[in-house]
Amino acid sequence: xxxxxxxxxxxxxxxxxxxxxxxxxxxASHLVxxxxxxxxxxxxxxxxxxxxxxxEAFDILAERYKERLxxxxxxxxxxxxxxxxxxxxxxxxxYKSIGSFKSQSSFYTWVYRIAVNRTINFLKRRxxxxxxxxxxxxxxxxxxxxxxxxxSHMTPRREVELNELQEKLNEALQKLSEPHRAVVIMHDVxxxxxxxxxxVMKCSEGTVRSRVFYARQQLQAYLSEYL
Amino acid sequence: xxxxxxQRLFDDLxxxxxxxxxxxxxxxxxxxxxxxxxxxxxxxRLQQLLALKRHERPSPEYxxxxxxxxxxxxxxxxxxxxxxxxxxxxxFTIERSRVWxxxxxxxxxxxxxxSVLMSRGVIPMARxxxxxxxxxxxDISIPTFAAAPPSTPAKxxxxxxxxxxxxxSAGSVVIIPAAxxxxxxxxxxxxxxxxxxxxxxxxxxxASSIHF
Lengths: 227, 212
Known about the structure:
The complex is a heterodimer of chains A (about 230) and B (about 210).
Chain A: H1 2-12, H2 15-22, H3 28-38, H4 43-51, H5 55-77, H6 80-97, H7 107-126, E1 136-137, H8 145-153, H9 162-174, H10 178-189, H11 194-201, H12 205-222
Chain B: H1 3-8, H2 10-14, H3 20-32, H4 34-51, E1 56-57, H5 66-79, H6 84-90, H7 97-119, H8 154-159, E2 192-194, E3 197-199
Antiparallel strand pairs in B: 2-3
């Protein structure tokens, strides 16, 4: 049993985590200096530094991608708290597994894949619990060309409140299956290309196109009164 | 060009990613097909609608303590060592589904190979054990016939056999009542063969009324 626990420790915590636990952070001034330098490093260098045990390098990576990860997960879950938990969870998983990252794909694609897969698993478990906790819509929306054009097409008899539109949109998205929701959010909300989505989802571009097409067909049916 | 194929190319058309000839073909179809034109407009409006979701954002200070929370959670996870159950559940997550797929395929493969070998007799199949068969060689009991009266016919003696013992492999006891197959012939004393040794009961008295 003891041997098993030792093995599980090894399995659970990578070299980076061990190093971080063994080596306390340096002095504050040195740390600030080092962090400033790290901000200019590219992903590949930061990954290599993290693999060598520099915990601060991973902090930069987390800072760099947290908002994009949060946005995707939030749009998939339509829940603010779940999105926060899942982003943290995905980054912890990425940090622990960074020793096995081989740079065959970019760090962004890799961490994105972890986040999307964990979110899909979470949504499958949550299946029957649709509790929305939506973020506010920022004030910039009033000047967004998409919004202006959309509103100009709204017929006078179908005046739509912005909050109502937000709710209907989220409801319609939640009716899609998890993989279809993921691709339509990555493509139509996040603006990712088919090729990048295919890398994240580990499937062909043809599959991505097909899923986007099918998801849009369904969304058009659910949102017909707003189109 | 078919309508379904045209509609799948709307994205590439709007982003100028189609080869010139294909692009011309799609545009020509759109000029001729009202249904596809309507579908294109609806798809564009849906994309505008979905793009509005980009404006759903948390408050600006939401990410202020993001790293602090990340470090806290990481430390908490480091302290809490996962038990075997958590590790088992974690092994079923989607990231490892490929491993389980291979394991399942391997298991099915092994099952098929074993099945084929068993059907061809390479691997002996387990024999079903009769419910009334003796559990072990030691359990075999040879019926005694001492209680049979001298005048009892062979038919009656044969009927006292409480169980029949099938001839089987080496070491087993074979009991063959010689008269059992002809019960009406009350002519000869029963003969029992034990491991090919013919045994005639020494004390068995044949009734005087029986003529040989």
